[in-house]
Write a structure and sequence with these properties.
The chain has 178 residues and is mainly β. It has one domain: Sandwich (Immunoglobulin-like). The protein has one helix at 2-21, and strands at residues 32-33, 40-41, 59-65, 68-74, 77-81, 85-93, 107-111, 117-128, 135-145, 152-162, 165-177. The protein is globular and about 45 Å long. It starts with a helix and ends with a strand. 17% of the residues are buried.
């Protein structure tokens, strides 16, 4: 019996050390995970024995719409290397915007992107915000930075459109580092 327990403990220690010391290639703090509650950044979920990243900082803005306001939470500043892909979760608080009956049909486009930086939609969900009665749409935008993009800051805007209605835009900056 004692030998079985010792072997089990040794196996658990080896597995724990392997999990804590290794991280799959390409894993980053802004990778998207889906714990209970919906999309979030890997860096904002903490698990014992897993690597902790600095938390992903988000900005909140309010956009005035024809019949109310639209709350937007997102990453307004993203630092990365050339040749990488970063994620930006766009949270739309739709409670005060009755003209958005289907928030998952919102179109997002980038205005002012330089050559070599592209954005594509990669996932969406709709539901409550943190157990509250407020409703939110969450959309993941992937930002692809080509390997030839030179270091520097690249400001652009993310534009929101819904069924032909212009809802405005919000600023974002990608800083490409060496």
């Amino acid at each position: 019996m004692r030998i079985s327990v010792t072997i089990a403990v040794m196996i658990m220690l080896v597995l724990t050390a392997f999990t804590a010391c290794s991280s799959p290639a390409g894993v980053a703090g802004d990778d998207i995970v889906t714990p209970p509650g919906g999309f979030t950044y890997r860096a904002n979920v903490h698990q014992q024995g897993q690597r902790d990243w600095p938390p992903i900082q988000e900005n909140e803005v309010t956009i005035e719409t024809p019949s109310g306001t639209l709350g937007v939470r997102y990453r307004d500043y993203i630092e990365t290397g050339a040749g990488e892909t970063r994620n930006n979760i766009i949270y739309l608080d739709v409670n005060n915007s009755p003209e958005l009956p289907d928030p998952l049909q919102v179109d997002y486009s980038a205005v002012g992107l330089p050559d070599g930086i592209t954005i594509e939609r990669d996932g969406e969900m709709y539901g409550g915000i943190g157990g509250q009665d407020r409703e939110s749409s969450r959309v993941v935008l992937q930002i692809h930075i080509a390997s030839y993009v030179k270091p520097g800051e690249y400001p652009f805007a993310v534009h929101i459109d819904y069924e032909g209605t212009d809802f405005g835009s919000f600023p974002c900056t990608v800083r490409v580092i060496e």
